[in-house]
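ok trying again, last paste got cut off:
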Amino acid sequence: QVQLVESGGGLVQPGGSLRLSCEVSGSGIRYLRMGWYRQAPGKRELVAQISPGGDINYAESVKGRFTISRDNAKNTVYLQMNSLKPEDTAVYYCNRPISPWSSWGQGTQVTVSS
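nice, full thing came through this time. structure:
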């Protein structure tokens, strides 16, 4: 069974930075497109995705501020978040953008507030 463990969230002031990690066990990610989602009340958004070959797409809301990356050897996906805004406040999850695994992780809370 696939397990997803997200970490790295926290409370940060507007303009600050955080780096999220998502460690995947039970499946290799080398040949998989992976993505980061965020869930705010009433809304879930796919904010970034990365293909096995390194092609990357971002939601307009985070373009230029967030950077997704992957380390296939560590079976881990990262999300570097810079210039954070209050509207980035959400629980962040990783999963496959196409045919997501049914077993989502617990997510990691990001709160941007002064």
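cool. DSSP finds no helices and ten strands in the chain. Strands lie at 3-7, 10-12, 18-25, 34-40, 43-50, 56-58, 66-71, 76-81, 90-95, 108-112.
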